[in-house]
Each structure stands twice: as structure tokens, then as C-alpha cells.
Amino acid sequence: MNIVVLVKQVPGTDNVKMDPVTGVMIRSGKDTIINPLDENALAEAIAIKNSHENVKVTAVSMGPESAMKAIKEAIAMGADGGVLISGRAFAGSDTIATAKAIAAAIRKLGDVDLILCGERATDGETGQTGAMIAYYLGIPVATYVSAVEVKEGGVIVKRTVEGGFERVEIPFPVMVTVNKDINEPGFPTLKGKLKAKERAVPVYGPAELGLDPAELGLKGSPTRVVKVFSPKLSRDTIMKKADGTTGPVEEMMKFLAGKEAI
Ligand SMILES: Cc1cc2nc3c(=O)[nH]c(=O)nc-3n(C[C@H](O)[C@H](O)[C@H](O)COP(=O)(O)OP(=O)(O)OC[C@H]3O[C@@H](n4cnc5c(N)ncnc54)[C@H](O)[C@@H]3O)c2cc1C
């Protein structure tokens, strides 16, 4: 059984800044980590590998050359190998161009049964990429998954839905996007780190993926960031004095009612 886990490299901080001119996230000079929900996806893949025969786990990332660190970390945590999608042609990709490139890499790997990824990334946070990859591969997707049980020829997943859970049986190949309730991610081991150091990781560009550069990067991205701005916080303090006939609470209720706030 072949499992692909998507690992996105994200800034290791909540304080993500945007370029106000281009509308693109400023990523340089930041400490980077594997997107936390992708660590959950990876931990699930490794748990499946440890409890079933003949399971191979491949980590796939799209990003600059520095995203190799995310792949190596994934191998150190237990993945068997990885693939990095990288090159100038991919710069400025929106979720559509990203999903097309990742889908092409998965197709190139061939014979993939299960794709696991985070439900959303902490930087872009659209939560669209997993479902879009499934669309481009023409396979089913299960989102918001908090448990995966591998059965003969497919999986049974537990999905978090409004007001409860849903159990769905889906045949392979399938894309599964996971939430944080699925498991506690593990840590890299010393043996894993040594394996990661030695393991060669191929880098795919548009040519290796058979993609036309016009479909990729900014050129292939129909999403336009029209304006980026930080919301301005404005607070006014209004002092209300009771006039002797009413108390402060009544006075405040009158004030809020006047503003149609209650
Ligand atoms: C006009 C425009 C220009 C942009 N330019 C750039 C740019 O120059 N550089 C840049 O880095 N970003 C750029 N972005 C952001 C980029 O489109 C998103 O980071 C990317 O499409 C993923 O979307 P997301 O972060 O919302 O992921 P989500 O959809 O929230 O992520 C869900 C899951 O998908 C998987 N995933 C998502 N992205 C990747 C990835 N790259 N590799 C592996 N797995 C992944 C992960 O498992 C993740 O948990 C741009 C966006 C727009 C709209």
C-alpha cells in the first residue's frame, strides 16, 4: 500500500506579514516548521505503516529549495522517502496552481492508495488544497477526519460534522484531510535523522511533471489579491453617570438600546 503525505513548510510564527503591494505573504527570514496538521497526517501514515504489512510512506512538498528541510524532517519522523516540487515557475501559485502541481507529482509517483494532508495550513489557511488535489486526480475526498481505519481495498473514516460525527467507507484511491483530534504527532528519532541525511530526495520541476509553465505560478493563478490591510482597532470610552433617578445599569441599558445593540 502506498501512502502520500503532504507536508507544507510554514512560518513558525502566528505573526505572518503580507506585502501590501503584491498581496503575497512575506516568508523570507522566518523560522519554518512543518504545518502542524501535516504532522498529524504524517503521524497517521506512520501508525498505519507500523500496523500493516508492505506500507510505503512518501512525503510531498511544494515550495522553495528550503522546503527540502520539511521533507527531511518527515523522513526523520518515519516516512520512507519524499519528493520536492520546486522551481521558479511555481512562484506565486494560488491554490489552483498549487493543487495542479501536487496532483501531477502524485500521478507521477503512480499507484497511490491513500493521500493524507492537513485540513488547513496555518499560513494561507484556505483549507482548499486537499479537496482541489482530489478534484484534479478525479478521486474522492474525505474532509475533517479524526480517525482512519484501513480495510481491504479502502478506508473507513470518522468525519467531524456539525453536531456530531459521520462514519464513511471509501475505496482506494482516496484523499483524506485530517484535523488535530486524529492523534498526537511524534518526534524525529536519531535513527530517522541519520536515514533522512542519507536519503536522496528528487526535485520535480514543470518538465518532470509534464506541466506547461503557463498553468503554474502567477501566470496560472486566477486568484488575485486585490488589497491587503490590517483591520484598524478603534475603541471609544463613554462614561455614563446615573442622574439620581436611575441606577448605572438602567442608564447603560438605555444607552445600548439607543444604539440598537440590545
Ligand atoms: C495570488 C497568490 C499568490 C501567491 N503566491 C505565493 C507565493 O509566491 N509563494 C507561496 O508560498 N505562496 C503563495 N501563495 C499562497 C499559496 O497559494 C498557498 O499557500 C497554497 O495554495 C496553499 O494554500 P493554503 O496555504 O491555503 O493551504 P490549505 O488549503 O489551507 O492547506 C491544506 C493542506 O494542503 C497541503 N498543502 C497546501 N500547500 C502545500 C504545499 N505547498 N506543499 C505541500 N502540501 C501543501 C497541506 O497538507 C495542508 O495542510 C499565493 C496565493 C495567491 C492567492
From TrEMBL:
Top-level taxonomic group: Bacteria
A Pfam family that the UniProt record links to this protein: ETF
Coiled-coil portions: none
Stored Gene3D superfamilies: HUPs
PROSITE patterns the record matches: ETF_BETA (PS01065)
Domain Electron transfer flavoprotein alpha/beta-subunit N-terminal per the UniProt entry, residue ranges: 22-213
MF (Gene Ontology): electron transfer activity
InterPro entries: ET-Flavoprotein_bsu_CS, ETF_a/b_N, ETF_b, ETF_beta_N, Rossmann-like_a/b/a_fold
UniProt cofactor(s): AMP
Family membership noted in the UniProt record: Belongs to the ETF beta-subunit/FixA family.
Record protein name field: Electron transfer flavoprotein small subunit
Annotated source species: Heliobacterium modesticaldum (strain ATCC 51547 / Ice1)
Gene designation per UniProt: etfB
